[in-house]
UniProtKB/TrEMBL annotation:
<comment type="similarity">
    <text>Belongs to the ribonucleoside diphosphate reductase class-2 family.</text>
</comment>
<dbReference type="Pfam" id="PF08471">
    <property type="entry name" value="Ribonuc_red_2_N"/>
</dbReference>
<dbReference type="Pfam" id="PF02867">
    <property type="entry name" value="Ribonuc_red_lgC"/>
</dbReference>
<dbReference type="GO" id="GO:0000166">
    <property type="term" value="F:nucleotide binding"/>
</dbReference>
<dbReference type="GO" id="GO:0004748">
    <property type="term" value="F:ribonucleoside-diphosphate reductase activity, thioredoxin disulfide as acceptor"/>
</dbReference>
<dbReference type="InterPro" id="IPR013678">
    <property type="entry name" value="RNR_2_N"/>
</dbReference>
<feature type="domain" description="Ribonucleotide reductase large subunit C-terminal">
    <location>
        <begin position="161"/>
        <end position="700"/>
    </location>
</feature>
<protein>
    <recommendedName>
        <fullName>Vitamin B12-dependent ribonucleotide reductase</fullName>
        <ecNumber>1.17.4.1</ecNumber>
    </recommendedName>
</protein>
<feature type="compositionally biased region" description="Basic residues">
    <location>
        <begin position="12"/>
        <end position="24"/>
    </location>
</feature>
<keyword id="KW-0170">Cobalt</keyword>
<dbReference type="GO" id="GO:0031419">
    <property type="term" value="F:cobalamin binding"/>
</dbReference>
<keyword id="KW-1015">Disulfide bond</keyword>
<feature type="domain" description="Ribonucleotide reductase class II vitamin B12-dependent N-terminal">
    <location>
        <begin position="50"/>
        <end position="140"/>
    </location>
</feature>
<comment type="function">
    <text>Catalyzes the reduction of ribonucleotides to deoxyribonucleotides. May function to provide a pool of deoxyribonucleotide precursors for DNA repair during oxygen limitation and/or for immediate growth after restoration of oxygen.</text>
</comment>
<feature type="region of interest" description="Disordered">
    <location>
        <begin position="879"/>
        <end position="916"/>
    </location>
</feature>
<keyword id="KW-0846">Cobalamin</keyword>
<dbReference type="GO" id="GO:0071897">
    <property type="term" value="P:DNA biosynthetic process"/>
</dbReference>
Amino acid sequence: MTETTSGPARGSRTKGGKKARSGKGLRIERVHTTPGVHPYDEVTWQRRDVVMTNWRDGSVNFEQRGVEFPDFWSVNAVNIVTSKYFRGAVGTPQRETSLRQLIDRVVTTYRAAGEQHGYFATAEDAEVFEHELAYAVLHQIFAFNSPVWFNVGTRQPQQVSACFILSVDDSMESILDWYKEEGMIFKGGSGAGLNLSRIRSSRELLSSGGNASGPVSFMRGADASAGTIKSGGATRRAAKMVVLDVDHPDIEAFIDTKVKEEEKIRALRDAGFDMDLGGDDITSVQYQNANNSVRVNDTFMRAARDGGRFGLRARMTGEVIEEVDARGLLRRMAEAAHVCADPGIQYDDTINRWHTCPESGRISASNPCSEYMHLDDTSCNLASINLLKFLRDDDQGRQSFDAERFAQVTELIITAMDISICFADFPTEKIAENTRAFRQLGIGYANLGALLMATGHAYDSDGGRALAGSITSLMTGTAYRRSAELAGVVGPYDGYDRNSEAHRRVMAQHADANGIAQRGDDLDTPVWAAATEAWADVLRLGEEHGFRNAQASVLAPTGTIGLMMDCDTTGVEPDLALVKFKKLVGGGSMQIVNNTVPKALKRLGYQDEQVEAIVAHIADHGNVVDAPGLKPEHYEVFDCAMGERSISPMGHVRMMAAAQPFLSGAISKTVNMPASSTVDDVEEIYVKGWELGVKALAVYVENSKVGQPLSAKQKDGATTDAGTAAPAPEKVIEYRPIRRRLPKGRPGITTSFTVGGAEGYMTANSYPDDGLGEVFLKMSKQGSTLAGMMDAFSIAVSVGLQYGVPLETYVSKFTNMRFEPAGMTDDPDVRMAQSIVDYIFRRLALDFLPFETRSALGIHSAEERQRHLDTGSYEPGVEEVDVESLSQSAPTAPGRPNAAARPAAEPAAAPQAAHNSTELAEIRLGLSADAPLCFSCGTKMRRAGSCYLCEGCGSTSGCS
């Protein structure tokens, strides 16, 4: 796409064999645009109205009418860009009203700075740069991170970075500076991370002779500050990361901080306080505003693997003040993460083996989402490429990845990102000085999960990992090649001379990793070839010119900008589910099967009629299991993050390992684990991540945290799918529920049970014509508090059942509720229970709910689980579906037909309304996504890397 004019040696890199002209500056060649035609003139523009509301109460959050966008932009992308990125007060002449204005504001600023600082050979090259950059944004090929769209080209400080790393030393002055600098970054809407390991431990003495407070104590003050400041003036919490080295004497207290707070949340919740995320009482809990990570080294991991001892060292003297069992400490980390998702883990030696600037200091921390890792007091600006834009289909239906155009776009973006550092503003002087000296960039991509599915690759497969690795290698190799070319034009970064040997060594490591990487098929092999050529150029040009940038690539969450580009998947993540929620132009919404599914089926060789039948099955069932004509060996291609066929936790780790050797930084990703995961499973993930060379990871066990929000019911006058306030219906008759009492004689079943050593009895009585109507629970001695609470609970549930509350509603609300006693049971169908009520309602579901209903809730008998292991399906086979087998398939209450044999025409729970793809997946799959509700619009967010993203309004809980 571009060439440089810094001498004859550069002519060999020019497109079409043309020689570079003498002098300095880049020659920019056209890839997408046409001479004499502006990119804006090649698309059809539309005027649309943007009205965004809070679905919980119908209030209008944002409204701007008559905005101008291309006709191929989705409703969601238009809404997010208009509400988040257009500048100027709404309703004033200064307010931006067109995507053209937004793109021009940013792109012309980049062009002017590039011309001012000598990046382009001629004015014509500057114009081509402007047009190509505008085209790529206009057609959703890539997007800069949110601060660029917020700030560039405005009168406010032109901050372009989303990621910051701070530092703190062992002095009160430095600690107070930390609080101030972090607060200023939060105020600007960004996040920050830092390592607290320089602060002496609570087991060391101060110069006055007293004991030091320790880093955990100072974390309280920073946590309170973060919880008080509304990040970026919004209602979301600040994003921050706190890191502590594993050899710090206070490491055990650091590991346990959130575990103890989680216990406090449970106790307060059980006492009646509102402890849901965003609840009135959750603010009384500490340490909830940061992600915590332990920085481990190879010595510790080897000791943990081999069962050795490990020394905790004083901060001031470096002497070992205690030796601990390394395996026990790693186990303690896994236990904490299993309970509350913290701490995450960062592999220090792996990180610093790939450090380009070790002579200037070690890498000791990361940004809040863990993808940016470099020197303290630095920042990184991000940009992400939409991978699906480079998937090509030829006339014969064969697919290929357009490696050449991908490399050209990468060169364009890296050039623009480096230019931005020339004019960018920064929140502190230290960060400004260091960022200008090292010029860290973070190019990445989005839509990997969609690309893999569209090309017929399973996410957890050798072919999928080969394609992901090849693209990542080509991206980073091209980025560093352009960085070396820029060094020949405008000079290397200031810290390069001091770090030149280490930087070239890391480039050779990347090239070596590229050379030994596993090749897959006809799709990734040409990409690997292009990457190999790029890394050869990196080594040659780096030796000649050095490098303009100390860092080039990361894999960020791509939250808001992913919506801007209409990406199906964020960052390195797989697809959420096969059925999507789609907003329609002019109002309304619909659920659709992912557009990538038909492409995948055609890639796998299915004919149009077969594709149509399979897509219809997915639309009805939400998965591909038993889809007509679909081969079982192809099921894995359609595995998603949620659903009956979800990707295994280790599959996520293996994908991270496939991309990591080809990234300057790290990967923002949380390894989601099912609720059945054990502490051993978490520990295995930590060890495997280290062995596979991942730089950092975090785990989240489903339903492990108490502070999860509950969806609120929509009030009268709430919004329609079009986003406008719907008129409240006229009330004519007010219907009240009628209690249907049980007769004097009633069938029932009594079950004895043991949960975590606590014994009890449950009697469940049903109506003669079927249907549970009464529950009695007996535990502890008569007159005790527990016995009284169980009696009251039984009465409340029984009355609710008799007033028509469906049993499945109770089951969905009370299963997975955690409190003591919990643990093993004596019931073969429910071997583990997280609490007594968890066991009770699982047992009731097995006894009284039809198979389809409880299967959607993830509740199966021992026999059904064994059937799933043998056949891949929980459902009884045709040969089993007869009267005799049905009568034996589950315990039956006396005098009532078996639940599995009941007709399906019984009252069901009220239909739920979906407001985005996460909520739709929950409804269709019968699952619960452990994610907060968006504070701005009330819809449930979804994971984007290690952050959360709202599909409704574009808000994020971290970097965007």
